[in-house]
Design goal:
The complex is a heterodimer of chains A (200) and B (540).
Chain A (H helix, E strand, L loop, with lengths): L19 H12 L9 H14 L14 H9 L7 E2 L5 H20 L8 H12 L13 H17 L3 H7 L29
Chain B lengths: L26 E6 L3 H12 L4 E4 L28 E3 L36 H5 L9 H14 L25 H13 L44 H7 L3 E3 L2 E5 L10 E7 L5 E13 L2 H11 L21 E4 L2 E5 L15 E2 L15 E6 L3 H12 L4 H8 L4 E8 L8 E9 L5 E6 L4 H20 L4 E5 L2 E5 L25 E3 L14 H19 L2
Parallel strand pairs in B: 1-2, 1-7, 2-4, 3-14, 7-17
Antiparallel strand pairs in B: 5-6, 6-7, 8-16, 9-12, 9-15, 10-11, 11-12, 13-14
Classes of the chains: A mainly alpha (200), B alpha/beta (540).
């Protein structure tokens, strides 16, 4: 199902064409991954396993894997204002703690083991139960599972993944474009410096 | 009125000497908020010779150092203070629907600047629902014309919907994504505008640079090409003696014994990070904090005279909150699109804007180009398909084969959709936070379903192999509606409070209905009209 559409894409190599402020934000994201400070070892295992199922990275060499869980840990450790909170949801850090506990409870109810210890296909069954809104587990009595799935798990994990230039290489996104801009505007054409899509 | 020349450079004002007033000095006007309403009022009133202080909760955006070409790195552009959200269709806040910092939401809007149609001002009369405005289209028209010159807005020589009109500037070229809406509509025989109305000129305007087709308009225009209050009206306001006081969060409007407001109490964040309470004295106050913060401030300003909140004898402050329906519909094409190039705001059709007796709903929708960047696209795909894992990654690998269309639809006002003060939660200033409740009506749902179906049809006609859709919402209006009498509204047609003679409200919250037009231009036109009325009442 996955194929390497843009084997020649290396957006990070374009960083000399970016403005200073943008370059700093993106290089910081690539090079300064924060340490875990918020979640305990078990929560961390559950979170890492969750990230692995939502955006699997087995197709990437180790050196090109995108760290996700540390950024979620950092946002829970030092919560930034996010503009709103659903009236049936707790603050974000607590939503994460409850959701991770809920994943383990659902895993335990369905397959008799912690989420991180399950094989991938059983993990996916747990995630489908959460996504569909009625997973077994005490935590889900006080945490709306569907809302947690879309607005916490999916949004933050895919949001962290697709903020990374390695993910941009995978989808052929041109990335930052100031001050150079884009000139090839017709027929979906690439700029001279952009990678071509490889035919299937 | 003299022709205004407001096209200066993009951020010179950061270096310019700005007049500063002492809070104890009584100024003519204290304006709260610097977005599409507050920005124009600050500029107009300063030009008319009034002393003006505009309070802005956020900071100046220096386009070079504060704006980035990056989806995840742009949180500082948004109003991210806590709001509680509920109802059967709870709205998300922050990000695309509320701005923070000088320029407000105009910093990160896409730039679509259509006018309302004449019918929008008479929805009660024509359709038997919602409300009529206390003014007619023709009374706002001269101010639309002013704003289209001053922003400026680009578009065709003949815009065929609503009251037919033309635009003073020509549009940019459409990118490949925008071309799909144009092609699909054309194949179906649906009239479509191939460029505009969009506030991004093709070429330089004044000292403002030419657009570089960077495509990051929703994350602030680093170039300074897209019009915003930051590059259009606010530099001119400062040049004419207005003070824009940043880091200043209004929390209460004090009253004197005669029932007039005496100024604004606000928390100011000093350069060393310390928070101090200050009070700016003013002969009149204009609240322009948009549809959530404006009612919040009024509801938090209680007194023995106004126990339910300032200017709220009608009980309507906070009522009739509207979002605009903004479903995103996308098609997957065999050909390459690369939708991240060129401004997302490009082409539109308003062919389905008006009530059509063949529909099972009243009022309508517009179709506009949108171009989700990767993070937004991943959220859309995951939400619509429920997919995750390799399935989600594979769908995202086709990113460059998607073109999207936004349905911008008219949600009707409902008294149940409201902003109140949350009973317990406070923000980091200690100010009680707003609690917004929002639920769709049957008419709203039918309209959105029809809009999505039409967008799918257009994308298929353009060559899409499959289409997808997710409901989204944009633009918050209502909550302090204008009307013809003190019992049915909060302000009159000049945006003046019925209850407090020296208090004005001039932002999206005064709109009784919203049409299917992005509200920025209408808010600015109302602000220009209010400013003109203030000037004429002074007898200048």
């Amino acid at each position: 199902m996955l194929r390497d559409r843009y084997p020649d894409s290396d957006i990070l190599a374009q960083r000399g064409h970016w403005d200073d402020a943008t370059r700093q934000v993106i290089l910081d994201r690539v090079h300064n991954v924060p340490p875990f400070r918020h979640f305990d070892a078990r929560q961390r295992d559950t979170l890492e396993a969750l990230c692995d199922r939502i955006v699997p990275q087995h197709h990437r060499p180790l050196s090109r894997r995108i760290p996700i869980a540390p950024w979620i840990d950092a946002r829970c450790h030092e919560p930034a204002a996010e503009g709103f909170q659903y009236d049936d949801m707790p603050p974000n850090a607590i939503a994460w703690e409850r959701g991770l506990a809920g994943l383990d409870q659902t895993a335990s109810a369905l397959f008799g083991a912690a989420f991180a210890e399950l094989p991938p296909d059983e993990q996916d069954s747990v995630l489908r139960a959460v996504r569909d809104g009625h997973p077994p587990g005490r935590e889900w009595q006080r945490l709306p599972a569907r809302r947690w799935w879309i607005h916490v798990a999916i949004q933050e994990i895919t949001g962290t993944y697709y903020a990374h230039p390695y993910a941009w290489d995978e989808i052929g996104f041109g990335g930052p474009a100031y001050p150079r801009g884009y000139a090839a505007l017709n027929n979906g054409a690439p700029e001279p410096w952009e990678a071509r899509e490889r035919a299937p | 009125m003299k022709q205004l020349h407001v096209h200066l450079s993009s951020n010179w004002v950061l270096d310019a000497a700005m007049r500063e007033y002492s809070p104890r000095e009584t100024v003519d006007f204290c304006i709260i908020g610097t977005g599409a309403g507050g920005g124009v009022l600050t500029q107009r009133l300063a030009r008319f010779g009034f002393t003006v202080v505009a309070l802005e909760a956020g900071n100046w955006h220096d386009s070079e150092s504060d704006m980035v070409s990056d989806e995840a790195g742009s949180a500082r552009l948004y109003w991210n203070d806590l709001r509680i959200t509920g109802g059967t269709d709870p709205l998300e806040f922050g990000a695309n629907n509320s701005g923070r910092g000088v320029g407000g939401g105009t910093i990160h809007y896409a730039g679509f600047c259509p006018r309302l149609h004449p019918s929008d001002f008479q929805v009660r009369t024509l359709d038997g629902v919602a409300a009529d405005w206390p003014l007619r289209y023709e009374q706002l028209e001269p101010y639309y014309e002013q704003m289209e010159r001053e922003y400026p807005v680009t578009g065709p020589a003949r815009f065929p919907w609503g009251k037919v009109h033309g635009y003073p500037y020509g549009p940019l070229q459409a990118g490949t994504a925008g071309q799909q809406l144009i092609a699909g509509c054309t194949r179906l025989g649906i009239p479509v505008v191939a460029g505009g109305p969009v506030a991004i000129p093709a070429g330089r305007v004044g000292k403002r640079p030419h657009c570089i087709m960077r495509g990051f308009c929703l994350l602030g225009c680093k170039v300074g090409a897209k019009s915003s209050m930051l590059v259009s009206h606010l530099p001119d306001a400062v040049a004419h003696g207005a003070e824009i006081r940043t880091g200043s969060m209004a929390y209460e409007l004090p009253l004197d014994r005669a029932g007039r407001v005496t100024g604004v109490r606000y928390y100011r964040t000093l350069e060393n990070g310390r928070l101090v309470a200050e009070e700016q004295h003013a002969r009149a106050v204009i609240v322009a904090g948009y549809a959530i913060e404006t009612p919040r401030l009024l509801l938090n300003s209680t007194s023995s005279r106004f126990p339910r909140g300032l200017a709220n004898s009608s009980g309507l402050v906070g009522k009739f909150l509207m979002a605009q329906a903004g479903p995103v519909v996308w098609g997957r094409f065999a050909k390459m699109i690369r939708q991240y190039k060129a401004p997302p705001a490009c082409a539109c059709t308003e062919e389905f804007y008006e009530t059509d007796p063949r529909n099972d709903f009243v009022r309508g929708y517009a179709l506009q180009t949108v171009s989700p960047l990767p993070i937004a696209m991943a959220h859309l795909i995951a939400e619509e398909s429920g997919s995750f894992g390799d399935e989600l990654l594979a769908a995202m690998q086709a990113y460059n084969h998607y073109a999207a269309v936004g349905v911008l639809g008219e949600i009707l006002p409902s008294e149940q959709n409201s902003v109140t003060i949350h009973p317990s939660a406070t923000d980091h200033y200690g100010i009680p936070v707003p609690y917004a409740r929002f639920s769709l009506s049957v008419n709203d749902r039918r309209m959105m379903r029809a809009g999505i179906a039409k967008a799918r049809e257009v994308l298929m006609a353009a060559g899409a192999e499959e289409t997808h859709a997710v409901n989204r919402y944009a633009h918050l209006v209502g909550t302090c509606r204008m009307g013809c009498s003190p019992s049915d509204s909060v302000v009159d047609q000049w945006c003046r409070s019925w209850d407090v003679p020296n208090l004005f409200i001039c932002d999206g919250s005064v709109l009784p209905t919203q049409g299917s037009a992005n509200p920025a231009l209408t808010i600015s036109a109302l602000a220009a009209r209010t400013a003109a009325q203030i000037r004429s009442r002074r007898g200048a």
